[in-house]
Amino acid sequence: MCKFKSGIAVRINESEVSVVVLDGLDSHMDIREKHNIPEDRCSFSCLSRYSTPVELVPTKLDFDDKSCWKFVFDAGKPDWWFDCMTDQCIDQLLKAAKSDIEAVMSGEKYKKDLDLGRLTSIPEGFNPTVGGNLWLTSLTSIPDGFNPTVGGNLYLQSVTSIPSDFNPTVGGRLYLESLTSIPEGFNPTVGGSLLLYSLTSIPSGFNPTVGGNLHLCKLTSIPDGFNPTVGGNLYLHSLTSIPEGFNPTVGENLYLMGCTSIPNPEELKKNVKGNIYSSAKLESEWAI
Asked: Within the chain, which residues score under 50 in pLDDT?
C-alpha cells in the first residue's frame, strides 16, 4: 500500500536524483504510468533500471522538522543508490507533501487514498475531502471540528474518544473499534459498515444510517427510541432484553443471541429482511 507522500526516485547521475510525484495521489503505479517510467528492472530502459519507489511518511504534519518524517524505500534500497541521494529525496518529497496538505487544507479533494497511518495528531482545521480511503490508525483522539468527507473507508481504530461535533460523511466503512462511549448527537452517515465493537452503552437519540453492517456486539442495553436503519446485518449479541417499540430497519439479519425473550416478535420481523437470531424460544419459524 502506497503511503503519503509517495514518489518515484530517478537517478540523474551518480550524485543526483530527481523524484517525480503526482499532486493528490500516492500510487506508485499511477506515478509510473503518468511519467512513462517502466517498472520492469530487467528491461533495457534506463528509466526502469535507475528508478525506485520511495515514500516520506509523517508522524506529525510539521514541515519544518525533518525528524517528524521517515524516508522509506518501498522496494528496498537499490544498488546504485548513494547516501547523498537520500537528503535530496527527502527535500523533494517534503516540498510535495507540503503542497498537497496545503491544497487539502484549502478545500481541494485528495483524489484517491490518503494514508496517514503513523500520525499521532492532526492540526486544527484539517478536514480533508478524500476520494478513496483515509487511514488515521495511530490517532487516539481527534480535535473539535474534525469532520472529513471520505469516499472510501475511514480508519480510526485507535481513537478512544470523539468530540460532540464529530459526524463525518463516509462512503465506505467507519472503523471506531476502540470507542467505549459516544457523545449525544453522534449520528454519522456511513455507506458501508459502522464498527463500534467496544461500546457498552449508547445515548438516547443515537440512530445512525448505515449502508452495511452495524456492529454493536458489546451493548448490554439500548435506550427507548433506538431504531437504526441498517442496510446489512445488525449485531447486538450482548443484549439480554429489548425495550417495547424496538423496531429497526435491517436489510439482512438481526443478531440478538443473548435475548431470551422478544416482545412483539411478529412486529419486529416486519422490517427485518433476513432472519432474526436469538436464544428466545419462539414459535415463529423465522427466529432461531
From this structure: 44, 282-288
How big is the chain by its Cα radius of gyration, in Å?
A: 24
Tell me the pLDDT tens digit for each residue of 32-59.
999 998 876 555 455 668 999 999 999 9
Paired strand residues for 19: 9
CA distance 272 to 206: 19
DSSP 263: S
Residues paired with 110 in a beta bridge: 130
pLDDT at residue 282, as a whole number: 46
pLDDT for 261: 80
How many beta carbons lie within 10 A of that of residue 267, not counting itself? 12
| Residue 5: other Cβ atoms inside 10 A | 28
Residue position matching grid coordinates 429497526: 248
Q: Output b/e per residue, 203-231; b: 16+ Cβ within 10 A.
A: eeebebbbbbbbbbbbbeebeeebebbbb
- Among positive and negative, which fits the CA dihedral 260, 262, 266, 270? negative
pLDDT at 46: 59
- Write phi, then psi, for 255 (nearest 5 degrees): -105, 115
Spatial CA neighbour of 135 closest among 160, 113, 104: 113
What does each C-alpha distance from 281 to 219, 262, 275, 284 come to in angstroms? Answer: 22, 9, 15, 9
pLDDT given at position 41: 57
24 φ/ψ sector (left φ>0, alpha ψ -120 to 50, else beta): left
pLDDT at site 285: 41
At position 262, the amino acid (one-letter code) is I
Quote the pTM value: 0.90
